[in-house]
Amino acid sequence: MIALQYELTTYKKFLEDLSVFLDIPLIDHTLYFPATIGKGYIKYLQLPDKTEVLIAYFRLKNDFVLERKKDAKEYYTFCCEEISELKEFSMTIGADQLQATEKFSAMYLTSFLYDVGYHLKPDTQVSSIRMLLTPEWMRNYLGLDQQAAVLAQYLQMKTAGILYKKVDAAAREIMKELLQKPRTAGAPALFYQSRLLHLVEKFFQWMNESLQQHPHRTQDLSRHDIERMRKTELHLLRNLAAPPTIKELAKMAAISESKLKKLFKAVYGLPPYEYFQKHRMDKARTMLLTGQYSIKDVGYALGYTNLSNFTLAFKKAFGLLPSDLLK
Predict the structure, then answer these.
(1) 292: Cβ contacts below 8 Å, ≥ 6 apart
(2) Helices 307-318 and 272-290 meet at what angle, rounded to 10?
(3) Cβ(234)–Cβ(249) under 8 Å?
(4) Which of 111, 57, 121, 116 is nearest to 91 (CA)?
(5) 185, 187, 213, 281: which has the fewest Cβ within 10 Å?
(6) pLDDT averaged per 10 residues, the chain (length 327)
(7) Which residues of 186-208 are buried (b: 16+ CB within 10 A; e: fewer)?
């Protein structure tokens, strides 16, 4: 298994860290997987406007687990990818989880507010385009000014369950072009930029249309509410062995308990304790996969004095016992 946890600063650093982790040298800002691991590549690009891009086309022989931790710095990642010939693929974005056993084809957006995790089974074919977007870039290129509340708009879309746009024929043709070298001479960076901008524009056009079609499902979230819930979430997850009470969280946020529950669910998709429990079980899974801790060690570290309760909570979260995961 290849498993990597990381905090995203830049795509360039991410690829450099992955290169060190796998002990594979970068060639022209590209990581080529050797035959012992699989085949294919992950390529880093910087566009003329300084936007960072990762283009990937690979198939690995081992399980591949990536976990990106949430951040305090505001950014967004635009993803356009097709994952095929798969036995099983799972992705989590905050409290949302998607599992697929057939082809996964989607364009979607993630934000700095959420942990994001990917789990690929061996021999899965991955074709992926990713762009690291700042709020400034989104305002300049997409006409989203500060009054549009870019972050709130995305969160509203997410809590309404409108997250993925299927890759259509036009987007798939652009992906094919980007996964190959430009056929014409000239400035490759401009070639990539024009096609990537077209993909992003297609996605945001769809997103805006979707929001207009479901106005009754969105929440009225202010930037102040979102920031307050972000601080609440940090406090909630500070100690995964002992969660604070709703009363303590409400006092810290200076709002009523009922409003806290409503705002927290609007931003993070789950009530506070369910969100806490999900992260506690994710931590348990990560600790067990390292092979450095016993089931007993993990249970006690996460606040379970009764290991039977830990086992039941783990099975409820993942559908298998901790012992089955270790097998």
Answers:
(1) none
(2) 100
(3) no
(4) 116
(5) 185
(6) 84 93 92 93 91 93 86 85 84 74 84 82 91 85 56 53 75 88 58 88 78 53 75 88 93 92 82 90 85 90 93 91 84
(7) eeeeebbbebbbebbebbbeebe
